[in-house]
Specification:
The protein is an all-alpha fold. It is built from four helices and no strands. It has helices spanning 14-20, 32-53, 56-72, 77-91.
């Protein structure tokens, strides 16, 4: 029997999926502090995976991790979205594809 070491944060149903496949896994539950640290690592992992594949599933994974980070830091998804919308209303989004080249100061 071979063993593969992961030491990474996974979605809640992954242990069930592994066991349904006839494998066994070892897990632990994280402290709040370690959870936030691992979420930050997970966001970097998902970003790297998106940059490599450009797959929409990786964008979805990044959003899921961002929601989890917001929740872990005490914000609701509604607050997250409200702040995102306020910022878009105030400063705009990225739809116009504007590249700022330079700003001259007097």
């Amino acid at each position: 029997m071979s063993t593969k070491i992961y030491n990474k944060l996974v979605r809640d149903k992954i242990p069930e999926i592994i066991e349904a496949d006839g494998k066994t896994c070892t897990t632990e539950f994280l402290s709040d502090e370690k959870y936030i640290e691992m979420l930050d690592e997970k966001l970097n992992e998902e970003l790297a995976e998106y940059q490599e594949s450009k797959d929409i599933e990786e964008l979805v994974d990044m959003l899921e991790v961002m929601y989890a980070i917001a929740t872990a830091r005490g914000y609701s998804q509604e607050q997250f979205e409200a702040i995102r919308k306020q910022k878009a209303d105030k400063r705009g989004g990225f739809e116009k594809k504007i590249l700022l080249l330079e700003v001259k100061c007097p």
